[in-house]
Amino acid sequence: MSERPPSYRVATDTGGTFTDFVVFDESDGTYRIMKVPSSPLQPDQALLTGLTTLAEQGVPSDAISVFTHGTTVGTNALLEERGARVGLAVTRGFRGVYEAMEQSRPFGPSVFDLGYTKPALLAAESDTVEVTERLAASGAVLEPVSDEEVAEAVRRFSESGVESVAVSLLFSFLNDEHEQRLADALRKADPNLWVTTSSELLPQMREYVRLSTTVINAYVSPVVGRYVGRLSAALERLGVAPGRRFTMQSNGGSVPFDRTPDRGVATILSGPAGGVTASVAIGRAVGIEDLITFDMGGTSCDVALVQGGEPTVSDQNTLEGRHIAVPMLDINTVSAGGGTVAVVDPHGSLHVGPRSAGAVPGPAAYGKGGRTATVTDANVVLGYLNPVSLLDGDLAVDAAAAERVVAEVAAPLGVDTVRAADGIVRIVNVKMGQAIRSISTERGFDLRDFTLVAFGGAGPLHASQIALDLGIPRVLVPPSPGATSALGLLMSDVKHDLVRSRLTDVSDLRAQDANSLFEQMHLAASKQLAQEGFSEDSTSYRYFLDMRYSGQGYENPVPVRTVPLTQEDLTGYRRDFDAIHEQCHGHAAPDQSVEVVNYRVQAIGLVPPVSLPTVPPAEGPVTGAVTGSRPAYFPDTAGGTGTYVPTPVYARAELGAGHRVTGPAVVEQYDSTVVVFPEQWAEVDHYGNLLITKVPSAEERSSR
Asked: Do domains 78-224 and 495-605 have the same CATH topology?
């Protein structure tokens, strides 16, 4: 009998500085990771370079059976305002909805900003067309759209030169007839025109957020679509995973390549979503269900809260002041990464971020022409990062350059280089700590109940100090922190989110009406999954009712345990809503009437699971993993003034299950560096995770 040829699953996550690869060998269950420098101007080039390198290392492209990709193309297009030129079609008399937005400033510093301005419109006023038509709030046609109106809209968009059109008409979530007539005419007139209708993308009430989401999708989808098309063609030539190529979405699931161009908005924050997915799987394996995920890379830091093994999902999000109403993992992103730049303003104050050195030129320590101080340079000066090389010697470190640029920051501050480096790290830690508080303590959660999961190339460098600052009792560093987000892509199932708005008081809602709507959504979702190659026994479905107290401007999703529903079930879910509202908002009103606003179905195509690798038990003392020593700066030493301390350096690859590293210590590996502070120790578990906790006092040890 001939041996079965090797088959590999490959996941790749594009970051600001590096593009990460995780390769899973299906024949023996082993993993390998690889990092290549990102190519910001052409992100697909880094992917193709990585695939070429993998082929040279014994992973031929045509042996890759599944390929999953997390991309920042859509995110960057939105943040940098370099998406498509968008035309907007609205109901006559409602063109001001997009300009007015929510008619109020966002929460936070903007409330006090005298110079606050709203974000620029992605669809210009001159490219907005009003269409004479009108639907009632019930979806009934009050004024039909005429052939002449449709033809006039097509003519104006054709003459304007837009490459994408967003169609968002009043009450189209109840009746899509008018939107579809306009969309069909636009596509017939110009097959190359990208058309997004709100009734297909987001059939949900609330006119502004539906319109905003539709415009954003029209703005980023051509950019994402061209990128995915170009990448798909290259993968096709290489023979990579024909028919099994997926893009990560921000809801924590993936979607086939050919579905990605229609919903570019769903890829925003797709990379960070992979990290949350991996953290949930790691936490489940070790029996920890309450987590704060802490993903610090080269340009940003992403944090999310997981309670009871379930990440928080939000269907109302903002990015740079723009509203997005598709289901997304509730991830808070701040400009804090290894490449974040430190500057001193004219008033002599030190600022860290939001600007980043990115992959090019990168930190000065990387020797690629960087001339500004970054967080990475400060970590080199403080002795946390290897002053000679990183990535197992693949990336040379220029410690003198790091020292020089940090000294340039120190001079106007009137402090020495060490104090300046420490200040840079302290400031970025405070920014990331505030991001963690915003998703936890500010929402009523007690951080003492959570474990901080630190990953990304820079996360483990900063997590120990942040945990001490915030009172988080434990830090978990996965075995491959620099590639954890890519690992999450490898583990992600295919997910489709469907939503329908039907506003009804719970006391008036008939169970058969709810069941009928859920059944329609289930049939549409199951058809989609079947087209994508999933059999009925490899799918699952989750149902939710979005509920609110009558008159509220927001709602909370209530999980539906079984479908079909009974009238008694609806009474129980109304009580569940009270409990959820109390948890989320600190109060409930059991005597007040409650409305069902939206019906949601999450359809999941289950991919074959991948198991987490384990590490062998420790053999010999932990000192056998020591590779050397170097001075590292710890701020609470020397009576609180801080000083350099001789610090042992451990090779993580040499640590086995049961080994314990006592701080101060630095643990180095290919894709990251872990810092253990003097009052902490780190223990290696069965899966190779490092669990960092405060060293128990003598009394605590004696009582055990």
From this structure: no
Per the confidence metrics, is the pTM higher than 0.85? yes
The torsion defined by the Cα of 469, 456, 325 and 163, in degrees rounded to 10, comes to 140
Residues 6+ apart with CB under 8 A from 214: 166, 167, 168, 196, 197, 198, 201, 202
- Residue 148: count of CB within 10 angstroms of its CB: 9
What's the confidence (pLDDT) of residue 2? 45
Structure tokens at 125: 């006023």
CA distance 649 to 658: 18
Instruction: List the chain domain ranges.
Output: 78-224, 495-605, 622-703
Cα(429)–Cα(439) distance, integer angstroms: 16
CATH architecture of 495-605: 2-Layer Sandwich (3.30)
Task: Please enumerate in sequence order all residues whose Cβ is within 8 A of that of 336, keeping only pairs 6 or more positions apart, or say none.
Answer: 296, 300, 301, 352, 353, 375, 428, 431, 432, 435
Query: Which residues, at least 6 apart from 203, have a Cβ–Cβ distance to it below 8 Å?
Result: 172, 173, 176, 499, 500, 501
The strand pair at 164-168 and 331-334 is best described as unpaired
What tens digit of pLDDT does each residue of 390-425 get? 988 888 999 999 999 999 999 999 999 999 999 999
Burial of 420 (0-12, 13-18, 19+ CB in 10 A): buried
| Positions in the chain short of pLDDT 70 | 1-5, 105, 107-109, 638, 698-704
What pLDDT score was predicted for residue 699? 63
What's the confidence (pLDDT) of residue 383?
A: 97
